[in-house]
Amino acid sequence: MTSIREIPREEYLLPGTAACPGCGFTIGLRMALKALGPKVIMVVPAGCTSIIQSPYPYVSIGVPLLNIAFAAAASTASGIAAALEYKGDKETTVLVWAGDGGTADIGIQALSGAAERGDDFIYVCYDNEAYMNTGIQRSGATPFGAWTTTTWTGKREFKKDVPMIMAAHRIPYVATASIAYPIDFYDKLKKAKTYRGLKYLHLHAPCPPGWKIPTDKTVEIAKLAVETGLWPLYEIENGEFRLTGISKMLLDKKRRKPVEQYIKVQGRFSSMTDDDIKILQKWVDEQWETYAQLAKTK
Amino acid sequence: MAQTLVINGNHAAAYGAKLSKVQFISAYPITPQTVIVERLAQMVEIGELNAKFIRVESEHSALAACIGAASTGLRAFTATSSHGLAYMHEMVIWASGARLPIVMPVVTRAFAPPWSIWDEHTDILLERDTGWIVFMAENNQEVLDTIIQAYRIAENENVLLPVMIGMDAFILSHTTTPVEIPDQELVDNFLAQESKRSFILDPNNPITHGSLTYPEWYMEFRYLLYKAMTDAKSVIKDAANQWAKLTGKYHGDLIDCYKCTDADVNMITIGSPSGDAKEAADILRAEGYKTGVIRLRVIRPFPSEELRQAAHNSKVLIVVDRNLSPGIGGILLNEVKGVFQTMKKQPLVHGFIAGLGGRDITLQNFISMFKRGYEILEKDEEPGIEWINLRREVL
Ligand code: SF4
Fold it and tell me: What pLDDT score was predicted for residue B1?
């Protein structure tokens, strides 16, 4: 694990972004660009990043960045990666930085195609668990019980497991990460960079307005998601599943905090009943049985 | 030395791309376009063409990948048809907004339902407001020649717009005719101009492209696109003339005037049906009628001036629309009417809807359409819209 002192001081996420106060994924973006910069070309589909990069003629990201339509991030990156190969440029990394709507829903076809072809880029999904930029509508990654402006009484379906979908494509590297554990994320990006082909990282990133949480609680709540087991940290390297960071300890059910602790501190879950919380707890526990199996079978 | 091959339109398109030395191709199959990219895939795999070829999972992705590659400065190519074009529509708009010189043949084909894989021009005409330069080729030779000209036009620094070249499904795509393949050296010289792009993604010179733009800036971007379209006219003419000088092949510039200047009745057409229209004009000329054909070789930028000049002596214009805009009629009819609106002495403009979904438009049909033009003139009828070869008995 990289020590905090070894993280580059260079900043490619420049001061003065248009992000909301307390925005989670910008913490992640800052880290990602430190891990990969400056030889990076970024591709950004519609989403919060379209806003936080600052409106024309201002710029808040210090690497070349191409904005593209919602469904097209992965395929555009495929084109750029192929072009770099054509030019013999082996140094530049292509980085897609897309939200959960752009990944789990409208963009999944292009992402799946690029994965199947083994196109050479890193795809990061920053998961704030709804279409935040358009005003908090439910996405395929919105969790069970969450209020959004299209699920007023709480979503009744569970979150789509995109990292596992990507792992099923047998790409060389899949990892989950959380903005509460930036060095874990940093190391995973560094590792992703060593592989050729499509690398997929899924970054859990709280959003204060969308989650109805105080702006100074972003990191704390992201941490709770990991500690309750709702958001496991793992990587799948060449098919080998491995829990990372504190998630390694959480295979033991007793060490996982009850999901209630995570639910109760967020306004978006206010319509969840005790029964709903039980359903969610059961779902989490079952997920962990799968992780236990995966961790064992390696 | 230039050689002549007997090839279909799809092969001609593939040769056009090869001779243009495209560096990036992405493709998704759709009938009747598939052969274009099959041939290119083969050329790349056997080392005849040094390009990256990616086989994507949809037309939307095909054009998105071209946008990615062109954004790094590569010469990019894809091809599509009908539903494929409709599916990539969003990226069609993106490519021109980003001012990327991508070239794409469109094998024009009808839409479903009901399914139809045959010829119609509605697909390409629906894209006319996207900011692409839109050509319609009359024959296989023109397909090849226009693809090469298209790169010269698209990459001109006063233009920097993508170009699509329409070619009729099956009538061109699958019909073999002799096509002269020019020398590589000739094409290299023709395309040798320094291509200055509007932007290049390069870590040594980071820029952000396509940011959110508030109302105080957006309109200027659109104006620049509009101006580029206008400036493209002289570049298109120059490309057509230079090509003619080098190869002897001239297909017209923005319009292709066939005996049009002194004609009383001019027929306005696009694409492959124009050949039959020209033949009908000849037959009627032999009978003493003063008929002509104005083929719109370019649909965007719309050749308004050129059309006015070519047709200012015409008494009647017959517009043949192999397309349909339900609720108004033929798309070209309305565009043409608009052009003459401002003239004091206006020709009568009469429209025909013909050949939808691959329905034949025969030589005899063209002759009757011309004759209807004379009838309207003689009987002082109100011009309107008629459907040709519609089987009213089954309705
Ligand atoms: S809406 Fe949420 S995710 Fe988007 S910029 Fe604001 S805080 Fe960040």
Answer: 72
Confirm or reject: Cβ of A209 under 6 Å from ligand 1: yes
**Are A277 and A222 within 8 A, CB to CB?**
no
CA of A130 to the centre of ligand 1 (A): 10
Buried b (16+ CB within 10 A) or exposed e, A140-157: bbbbbbbbbeebeebbee
Chain B residues near any Cβ of chain A (below 8 Å): 23-24, 26, 51-52, 54-58, 60-62, 64-74, 76, 90-91, 94, 201-203, 205-214, 217
Q: Over the stretch B214-232, which tens digit does the pLDDT of each residue have? A: 999 999 999 999 999 999 9
Task: Report the DSSP pairing between strands A240-243 and A234-237.
Answer: antiparallel
Q: Which chain B residue is nearest to residue A87, measuring alpha carbons?
A: B74
What pTM did the predictor assign? Answer: 0.97
Residue B379: left (phi > 0), alpha (psi -120 to 50), or beta? Answer: alpha
Of B54, B70, B90, Cβ closest to residue A117: B54
The answer to whether A16 and A53 are in contact (CB under 8 A) is no
Residue A179 near ligand 1, beta carbon < 6 Å: no
Cβ of A25 less than 6 Å from ligand 1 = yes
Dist. CA A213–CA A195, nearest whole Å:
37
Local confidence band at B343 (pLDDT 50, 70, 90 cut-offs): confident
N-term to C-term CA, chain A? 21
- Four-point Cα dihedral B29, B34, B37, B38, nearest 10: 100
What's the CA gap between A44 and A126, in Å, rounded? Answer: 11
Question: Which residue reads 């799968």 in tokens?
Answer: A290
Residue A37: per-residue pLDDT: 86
Assigned token pair, B56: 């994507």
Q: For a ligand 1 pocket test, name from A23, A44, A103 the mutation site with the most ligand atoms within 8 angstroms of its C-beta.
A: A23
B361-367's contacts with Cβ under 8 Å and 24+ in sequence apart are B361/B273, B361/B276, B361/B320, B361/B322, B361/B388, B361/B389, B362/B276, B363/B276, B363/B279, B363/B280, B363/B283, B365/B389, B366/B267, B366/B273, B366/B276, B366/B277, B366/B279, B366/B280, B366/B320, B367/B280, B367/B283, B367/B284
pLDDT at position A231 is: 98
Q: How large is the ipTM?
A: 0.97
C-alpha distances out from residue A11 to A37, A38, A40, Å: 9, 9, 13
d(CA B55, CA B393): 46
CA–CA dist B121, A75 (Å, integer): 28
- Separation of alpha carbons B268 and B166, rounded Å: 16
Nearest residue in chain B measured CA to CA from A73: B64
